[in-house]
């Protein structure tokens, strides 16, 4: 076994189509390179088994004693997939992806752990296999995840995602700038997804009509991104956000940031991820990045990230 192995995975943001993706509509998501999860593996002492330290979370886990924890389950899934016995190793995981902020922090940490472990054992998993294992862990946290997080994070490519279908990546003809604003309010995707499910069960026709509209917006956004007709993207974000409001996954804090970005001149803005808190994204021209970032901070964003898509 190699003496030391390190693997990293990106965070992700959903550009269009969160929530409706759970109901079979397409969504577009891209990896975020500035926020990453990392797993570093060193060999442990004989007979100590597999140990995981998650410093950011102040967690010390062992496969023997805390097998039910998601990170241990990820390690177990990898060992089973590779038909290996438990090795004596220490895995340190850390992440600069905000937790519970809609940027896929949980999936990224699981993916980094799985990637590092399979590499350390000399049998690196393909993105497809890694993604399938991370999806198993996602189900524990989310209940009914669409699978978009694990897919984008493991493939590290822009993805046009439809639940249950083969992964389709898409091209970005002209790169564009996004500013991401974090409300600082943690929000569990499981809860917002659960609330939407209850509302959908109570009123399926109304909700499905909204999901269909969201799906149409996503298809138009994909065409615009592939064709490089960037002047359409902001408007499509606003249209998507209007539907996200209708299914009640926005929040006053998200609305404050969205309004601040639009007032400062962004062509479009919407929440990104589960909603209820977490992050929003604004479509901006390169020369607007600083001004809109500043407007978001003034409106209460606890963190502002600039990223270029493509
Ligand atoms: O909050 P995040 O980044 O995990 O994104 C959730 C996206 C949803 O569409 C709301 C749920 C899902 O499983 O796709």
Question: Quick recap of the structure?
Answer:
The chain has helices at residues 70-81, 105-120, 127-142, 148-155, 189-202, 204-227, 233-246, 252-263, 289-298; strands at 4-16, 27-43, 50-54, 59-62, 89-95, 159-161, 168-169, 176-182, 268-272, 279-284, 303-309.
Index terms:
310 residues, Ribosomal Protein S5, domain 2, seven-stranded mixed sheet, 11 strands, 25% strand
Report what the structure shows.
It is a single chain. Helix content is 41%, strand content 25%. It has 2 domains: 4-169, 2-Layer Sandwich (Ribosomal Protein S5, domain 2); 176-309, GHMP kinase, C-terminal domain (Alpha-Beta Plaits), CATH 3.30.70. It is globular and about 60 Å long. The protein has 310 residues and is α+β, with helices and mostly antiparallel strands. It is built from 9 helices and 11 strands. The protein has helices at 70-81, 105-120, 127-142, 148-155, 189-202, 204-227, 233-246, 252-263, 289-298, and strands at residues 4-16, 27-43, 50-54, 59-62, 89-95, 159-161, 168-169, 176-182, 268-272, 279-284, 303-309. The two termini are 37 Å apart. Helix 2 (105-120) packs across helix 3 (127-142) and helix 3 runs antiparallel to helix 4. Strands 1, 2, 3, 4, 5, 6 and 7 form a 7-stranded mixed β-sheet that branches. A 4-stranded antiparallel β-sheet has the order 9-10-8-11. The chain binds (3R)-3-hydroxy-3-methyl-5-(phosphonooxy)pentanoic acid. The site of (3R)-3-hydroxy-3-methyl-5-(phosphonooxy)pentanoic acid (PMV) has 17 residues, from helix 4 and helix 5.
């Amino acid at each position: 076994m190699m003496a030391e192995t390190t693997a990293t995975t990106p965070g992700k943001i959903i550009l269009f189509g969160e929530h409706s993706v759970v109901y079979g509509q397409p969504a577009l998501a891209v990896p975020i390179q500035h926020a990453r999860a990392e797993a570093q593996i060193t060999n442990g002492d004989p007979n100590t088994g597999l140990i995981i330290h998650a410093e950011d979370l102040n967690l010390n886990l062992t496969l023997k004693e805390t097998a039910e924890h998601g990170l241990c389950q990820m390690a177990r899934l990898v060992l089973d997939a590779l038909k290996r016995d438990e090795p004596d190793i220490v895995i340190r995981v850390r992440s600069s992806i905000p937790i519970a902020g809609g940027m896929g922090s949980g999936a990224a940490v699981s993916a980094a752990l799985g990637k590092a472990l399979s590499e350390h054992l000399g049998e690196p998993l393909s993105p497809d296999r890694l993604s399938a294992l991370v999806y198993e862990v996602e189900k524990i946290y989310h209940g009914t995840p669409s699978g978009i997080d694990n897919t984008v994070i493991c493939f590290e490519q822009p993805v046009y995602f439809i639940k249950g279908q083969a992964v389709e990546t898409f091209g970005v003809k002209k790169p564009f700038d996004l500013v991401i604003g974090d409300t600082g309010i943690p929000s569990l995707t499981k809860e917002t997804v659960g609330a939407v499910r209850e509302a959908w069960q109570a009123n399926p026709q109304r909700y499905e009509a909204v999901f269909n509209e969201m799906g149409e917006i996503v298809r138009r956004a994909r065409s615009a991104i592939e064709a490089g007709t960037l002047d359409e993207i902001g408007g499509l974000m606003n249209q998507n956000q209007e539907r996200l409001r209708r299914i009640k996954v926005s929040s006053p804090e998200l609305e404050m940031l969205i309004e601040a970005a639009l007032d400062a001149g962004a062509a479009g803005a919407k929440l990104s991820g589960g909603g209820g808190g977490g992050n929003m994204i604004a479509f901006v021209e390169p020369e607007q990045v600083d001004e809109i970032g500043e407007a978001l901070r003034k409106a209460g964003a606890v963190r502002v990230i600039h990223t270029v898509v493509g």
